[in-house]
Design goal:
This protein is α/β, with parallel strands linked by helices. The chain is about 35% helix and about 20% strand. The chain contains 16 helices and 23 strands. Strands 17-18-19-16-15-20-21 form a seven-stranded mixed sheet, with helices on both faces. It has a six-stranded mixed sheet with strand order 12-11-10-13-14-22, with helices on both faces. The structure holds nicotinamide-adenine-dinucleotide and 4-oxobutanoic acid (SSN). Nicotinamide-adenine-dinucleotide binds next to α8 and α9. 4-oxobutanoic acid binds next to loops.
Length: about 550
């Protein structure tokens, strides 16, 4: 089974990946990687000594090198410097991870919901008992809270900034967001109820049980290296499933640190495994295995489609969180300030590298010029720089391929008549920094109207009527998030209902939360994550018909 390589990473000496693949990013080839700057180096030394900078995979509760000792280089996108060499794994390691996960499932799935809940809670908050002086040498044993994910938010945030590039403050915010899924599902574990159905015959009783699916393969992207993992692993473990996680090769360090904390919390050996390296090989092994009963994937639509097809021979359950093309619709009656702030947040979070990012800004005729001016003013205040630098609000893009994509989209729009109001080129900082950009007079024939930009570029599209706005907004294969800015309650209902999207923000630019369902329609995906709906994805429904009940 060939899934097609989508490797955009330097894999140095990896035995299996064809490194000369046209997909490999030239930026990340080892000869071009420079020594680390003092700042990043001291951060990484601190992380190493804290035991959180792990470079081996986790299989069956043991940290291991790849079997042939090959490694991948992980780079800091802000500087191009090498942060770490991590194990480059493939089929053999993945098969062993699946086997250990399968074994762990036999006992993890039979633990009570309360036991699983306590382990998950310890992953974020672990109680420890210590003797404490209470009065004149008199000691008492006291229960203290020792937070794992939360207490290590600084270190985890630093790891995210090191390997992904987002500003440290935003990275620490991601840790809190990521931890919120573990907290939520630790609670939800105890609320998985079945049903008793009124029977169709008086001597029968009809029951419905929810049981864990089994071993889950979780494949995650680089843009949220922690939260995209906890959003899957939280409900999976809470349900009684065990997991093999494959993080992005670009950002494996955060996943490994989170797994180290999971072990400290008491997640049993094999219940959580992490393998990384050769994506197509690992993907193939997960998909081919009959022991893996579910694949949950967050990433591009193109890869998601390949995985879905490859899941067919073993008829696995599939959840897909794929790309978006979110409209942010500003109506004439919107509060200008709210619309500017909301769209700014929706567009420029994570330098525009978010699946729910506003990809198209649809602005009604009457407010178009005023909005364009106020929005450009706000965008101009964004501070581009290294994520470790105080005050930075916009980090680098993930790699050269991302920059080239953004540049080509902007060139296409300009060649077809769009006008740049702000930015429109690489930032003078070099590397993969791009100027926050606003472009007006964008139309539906331009590539940026049709495809995910995944960068800090806001295209303004003019519309006349509410019907026009809905038609333009829905004219895409994607259907993840949409935003509306209006002061009319009736309009907000009408338009929310008419939009073919999985999430709608009304006068809000950041709407993701662990308590609400997250997921797309059309080619943005299948299934939901977060909330009680996210838990359902990890259950099989079993119907039990008990007959002969009237026998004395
Ligand atoms: N809907 C959501 O919730 C959501 C969230 C975050 C990101 N995304 C989307 O993810 C994309 C950006 O992330 P990306 O560039 O990491 O996506 P990607 O599809 O390139 O990679 C995602 C993951 O899939 C792996 N992968 C790639 N090819 C594979 C193969 N053949 N077999 C198995 N695994 C393979 C990668 O190594 C990575 O771990 C964007 O399109 C974004 O919209 C969606
Ligand atoms: O990139 C997608 C996930 C971001 C979010 O959960 O809001």
């Amino acid at each position: 089974m060939v899934l097609g390589a989508a490797a955009r990473v330097a894999i140095v000496g990896c035995r299996r990946l064809v490194c000369s693949s046209s997909h490999a990013s030239p930026l990340l080839v080892s000869s071009q990687c420079r020594q680390m700057s003092m700042d990043a180096q001291s951060v990484s030394e601190k992380l190493r000594s804290s035991g959180l900078l792990r470079t081996q995979g986790l299989i069956g509760g043991k940290w291991i090198d790849s079997y042939d000792k090959t490694t991948i280089k992980v780079n800091n996108p802000a500087t191009g410097e090498i942060v770490a060499d991590v194990a480059c794994m493939g089929v053999k390691e993945t098969n062993d991870a699946i086997a250990s996960s399968y074994e762990a499932f036999q006992s993890w799935s039979t633990r009570t919901a309360g036991e699983r809940s306590r382990v998950l809670r310890r992953w974020i908050t672990r109680p420890v008992w210590r003797w404490r002086n209470v009065f004149h040498g008199c000691q008492m044993r006291m229960k203290l809270k020792f937070d794992l994910l939360v207490a290590h938010k600084e270190e985890l945030g630093q790891l995210i900034t090191l390997e992904q590039g987002k500003p440290l403050k935003e990275a620490i915010g991601e840790v809190a967001y990521g931890a919120s899924f573990i907290e939520y599902y630790a609670e939800e574990a105890k609320r998985v109820y079945g049903d008793i159905i009124p029977p169709n015959a008086s001597d029968r009783r009809l029951l419905v049980l929810k049981q864990p699916v089994g071993v889950v393969g979780a494949i995650t992207p680089w843009n949220f290296p922690l939260a995209m993992i906890t959003r899957k692993v939280g409900p999976a473990l809470a349900s009684g499933c065990t997991v093999v996680v494959k993080p992005s090769e670009l950002t494996p360090l955060t996943a490994l640190a989170a797994a180290e904390l999971a072990l400290q919390a008491g997640v049993p050996p094999g219940a959580l495994n992490v393998v990384m390296g050769n994506a197509p090989e690992i993907g193939d092994a997960l998909l081919a295995s009959p022991q893996v009963r579910k694949i949950t994937f967050t990433g591009s639509t193109a890869v998601g489609k390949k995985l879905m097809a490859a899941a067919a021979p073993t008829v696995k359950k599939v959840s897909l969180e794929l790309g978006g093309n979110a409209p942010s619709i500003i109506f004439d009656d919107a509060d200008l300030d709210v619309a500017v702030k909301g769209t700014l947040a929706a567009k420029f979070r994570n330098s525009g590298q978010t699946c729910v990012c506003a990809n198209r800004v649809l602005v009604q005729d009457g407010i178009y010029d005023k909005f364009a001016e106020a929005f450009s003013e706000a965008v101009q205040k964004l501070e581009v720089g290294d994520g470790f630098k105080e005050g930075t609000t916009q980090g680098p893009l993930i790699n050269d391929a991302a920059i080239q994509k953004v540049e080509s989209f902007v060139q296409d729009a300009v060649s077809k008549g769009a006008k740049i109001l702000l930015g429109g080129k690489k930032h003078s900082l070099g590397m993969t920094f791009y100027e926050p950009t606003v472009i007006r007079d964008v139309t539906s024939n331009m590539i940026m109207s049709k495809e995910e930009i995944f960068g800090p570029v806001a295209p303004l599209i003019r519309f006349k009527t509410e019907e026009d706005a809905i038609r333009i907004a829905n004219d895409t294969i994607a259907g993840l998030a949409a935003y509306i800015f209006t002061n009319s309650v009736q309009r907000s209902w009408r338009v929310s209902e008419a939009l073919e999207y999985g999430l709608v923000g009304v006068n809000e630019g950041i709407i993701s939360t662990e308590v609400a369902p997250f997921g797309g329609v059309k080619q943005s995906g299948l299934g939901r994550e977060g909330s009680k709906y996210g838990m359902d994805e990890y259950h099989e429904i079993k119907y039990i018909c008990m007959g002969d009940m009237n026998r004395q």
